[in-house]
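$ fold --in a.seq
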Amino acid sequence: MNSKQLMSVVSISLIILVSILGVALYLYRIPKQAPQFPKEKTLEIENVNFNDTLFRGENLTMIVTLNVSVYNATLVGVKLEASKNERISHQYIFLNQSYSPGYYKLQFDFLPGFWQTTSDMFFALSDGAYKLHNLNYTFSVDNQTFEKTMILDQIIHVEKYSAVNMFSSSTWILHNASGSISSAMHGKVTVVTNNSFNYGLLETQVNAASSYLFNINASSGFNGTLFINKRTYKINNSEISLNLADLSSMINVTLVFNSSQSELTFYFMLLNRKKVILVTVMNDHWEDTFPPVSEILKIVNIYFEKWFNMTFKVALTIETDYSGSTSLPDFFDFAKSKVGSMLNLPQNTWWHIQGRSRNNMGADILLINTNKTMSNYGMVIGTVNGGFNIAANAGGSLKASGVRLTNAWTDNLFQHEISHIFGAPDRRTGVDPPSVMTKSETIEELLSDLANGTLWLELNNWIPEDLLTIASNIIFYEQYVD
């Protein structure tokens, strides 16, 4: 190779080297991109807080801390997995709520009834211990969906409401010129007088449900007369107990007494415990026509709470499509089997008895509702001892010439049928006083009652005898009967 050729090779080599260095320098100067943030880490539930003790009928409320990073994300829903003994079930809350990056505090309210799919083993948060396993949540980022799980592994307990003495905060007045009240607290009232033969008149009012036992006793023997509302009771010893089931919830109490003691202490007791009835609802297109059952029960609860300190809480709602006959007994048979098999109850049936059954897994009563016109507006099946734990409600009655239910009548119908569960019987227009139980049997009676403002579907009152009957049957739902 001559010198000319050598120079040519060297030149070409230098050109190639310079080109390579130039490309390398260009590549070096290109800004480096940071690694992309994993979209599956965009949304995290970092903390969950809830009470480990609930009262019967309360929702299980969870407060969670949500952390959203880098991207916008949509929280599609959350699913809680829980169990009662060997029965494992779920409850899903659909959210579909979008969030930009940041921290958020969210509240999730889970109903007492746990059941999501037919593979779940239904139970209601009714009493005792329950285990919370996991909180699963689903979210999406840029049309990609992700699922995550937060392990809870905690036990919660469900208790009855505590009994309260309704006289705890009563204001007492003593009408006696020679005496005074030295103390009055928590139902304990001490009267001091100036003479050896004491005459006194104690007065108070107490707001109380009327289905509880009233008790009064004294530190020493006394006699007198007790007035409760317009009723009079003679007292010949130091203790009296009364069932106030047929009295008004506003109790005016007056005690006229005498004693040989200069100091006399009375103990007034009216124990009152809030009662919550857990309701499973099966709807056959009911809400296509009428208000949601939970909204109807809010109105019904006004009257049951006033008289019996009892409310009805929807634990679970399931939908169905009934295509059977217009006979309500046939609808009952369909509902017992359908609900039992869907919820995986023992023997795949709702246990249809008077009172709470353990086999209904924490639910107390079943309300089955159809928007169809049926043989009657409603029905409860039972015996002479009382109604059983299912009530049916229909959108129209063939017995009333097919007259359809109105939205304004729905709460009266529900109140009527639920009252049957607690033993209140049907009463007859023209025979019994107007009430929510006093039915018009013919279309003529219905139209007459409607014109006179005495139609049972527009009334909410019970007659005193039915108040007493309902109060005496509540005990079947304060404990299991099987």
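$ fold --in b.seq
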Amino acid sequence: MPLPTVILPGYFAAASDYRKLEKFQVDRGFSTVTVIHMTLNSKTY
């Protein structure tokens, strides 16, 4: 079983810019996922 393709955005473009590439690969049978980095805003009191 082949390993999935993992797209790590952030250096050249944001995750949203890689969605077309992800869809292109999935449509052709390649297991692909784009990692979305999310942060939580915290307040200091």
